Amino acid sequence: MHIAIAGNIGSGKTTLTELLAKQYGWEAHFEEVDENPYLNDFYDDMKRWSFNLQIYFLKSRFTQIMDIRQSGQNIIQDRTIYEDAQIFAPNLYEMGLMSERDFNNYSKLFRLMSSMIQAPDLLIYLRSSVPTLVNQIQKRGRDYEETIRLDYLKNLNTRYENWIKNYDSGKLLIVNADNIDFLKNPTDLNSIVDKVEAQIHGLF
């Protein structure tokens, strides 16, 4: 079983991944943030480092997916390879922060990789408004996120909604994350678990 959690920066993906992994006793695979050698440079100069960053994430996510499928284990994954290719890279290109040459090269590489992988059995999308995202980003206080632009978050949110609206690669669960606190409120977490249970019972 492969469950993946999708959502914008600051939506709570990592926290929910940890909580569900603990709930089910499954293995968690996290996004390589602290180990990413390009993040600090990217937020300082997006145009210069956008291609390097996206290639790193693409490689990292592809490796994760191959490991997940070969392991035969039940896995919960923080963010998907599809978000990189359908949301982050096109957004950078549209904002003029990635050149057409780099974007075309990236897109061709993604199409090659996507022909070799399977989508998650269940995708959980954390839907969050921009104010919620900003609040969460400020709370966790990562230095490299202090310079994230509001228009960048807004554009990402629009792309997330368009992607989810057309998502047809597997089961999908949408969680409205604006008015819940699944870390501190057990009732909110239990509500999500109940919805996940309803989805995965049909997968076994």
Describe this protein's structure.
By secondary structure, the chain is of the alpha/beta class. It has one domain (24-200): Rossmann fold, CATH 3.40.50. The chain is 56% helix and 12% strand. It has a 5-stranded parallel beta sheet with strand order 2-3-1-4-5, with helices on both faces. Helix 3 (46-71) packs parallel to helix 5. The protein is globular. The mean pLDDT is 90.
SSE topology sketch:
Blueprint: E1 2-7, H1 13-24, E2 27-29, H2 39-44, H3 46-71, E3 75-78, H4 81-94, H5 100-114, E4 122-127, H6 130-140, H7 150-165, E5 171-176, H8 186-200
Parallel strand pairs: 1-3, 1-4, 2-3, 4-5
Describe, in short, the structure shown.
By secondary structure, the chain is of the alpha/beta class. It has one domain (24-200): Rossmann fold. It is built from 8 helices and 5 strands.
Provide the structure class: alpha/beta
Strand composition percent: 5-15%
Number of alpha- plus pi-helical segments? 8
* CATH homologous superfamily grouping: P-loop containing nucleotide triphosphate hydrolases
Biggest sheet strand order reads: 2-3-1-4-5
E-strand count: 5
Largest sheet: 5 strands, parallel
At the third CATH level, what is the topology name? Rossmann fold
Distance between the termini: 8 Å
Helix proportion of residues, in percent? 55-70%
> Which sequence of SSEs, written as H and E, runs from N to C?
EHEHHEHHEHHEH
Mean pLDDT: 90
What's the alpha carbon Rg, rounded to whole Å?
17 Å
Coarse shape: globular
CATH class: Alpha Beta
Total individual domains: 1
> So, CATH architecture?
3-Layer(aba) Sandwich
Unreliable residue runs:
none
